Amino acid sequence: MTFDAVLFAFLLTLFAGLSTGVGSLFALLGKKTNTRFLSVTLGFSAGVMIYVSMVEILAKAKDSLALELGVKSGSWMTVGSFFAGIFLIAVIDKVIPSGENPHEIYKVENMDEAANGKEKKLMRMGLMSALAIAIHNFPEGIATFASALHNPSLGIAIAVAVAIHNIPEGIAVSVPVYYATGSRKKAFWLSFLSGLSEPLGAVLGFAVLGRYLNGVTFGVLFAMVAGIMVFISLDELLPTAREYGEPHLSIYGLVAGMMVMAVSLLLFI
Predict the structure, then answer these.
(1) Can you give the pTM of this predicted structure?
(2) Domain range holding 171?
(3) pLDDT tens, 97-127?
(4) CA distances for 91 relative to 13, 95, 268, angstroms
């Protein structure tokens, strides 16, 4: 593992995490939320994540573990790690208060009325959303970093998918903070900084696991990454995509994401 490979994986994770700032710009510079665009792109991101998790990442995890532990033990370890990843992100999601959950839908055009006389509540909502996103994005940072470290082309696809998924999270932070403070600058920077937990997750994950990276740890980590991304897609991306736009748009985006991911994987055979 070279320094360049580690640096590339970190930069991809940084790009994915700081895309919350892109969501903030969408909210603060526009007078109306482009719901159709968000619906399609969130569906696209879910398609990429689900396809690459089930077809590529889980298969690589099983191959790695089977090589180290044998076919039977490796297969059981793969399945156990996959569901351990789902359990981990589900627990994180459970401890986030529902009122400040980053899955909640925020639209710029609906906030004027909500802002009247409710500045303190809106500010708390924005701050809690930022904290929730920071907690939520931590394992995503490990997932993006580990994928990019193992396979740079795979890491790029995952980083783009995670970046798309972070756009509405940026909106969830910036809109209430802006209407509570009247400051676009404060709203943008709080949203932007909330994404830093993703590269932080990558750094801490590498610091803890770096010296232990071998066939078994890579296999377990990869299977957990697959579980995390499938859960995020089913629990966050698709429901949010359907809330933002017409139901069929999210499915069209989902299928398009799967197709693009499938073709990109075939090109690297």
Answers:
(1) 0.68
(2) 3-267
(3) 554 444 455 555 454 544 444 566 667 666 7
(4) 23, 6, 36
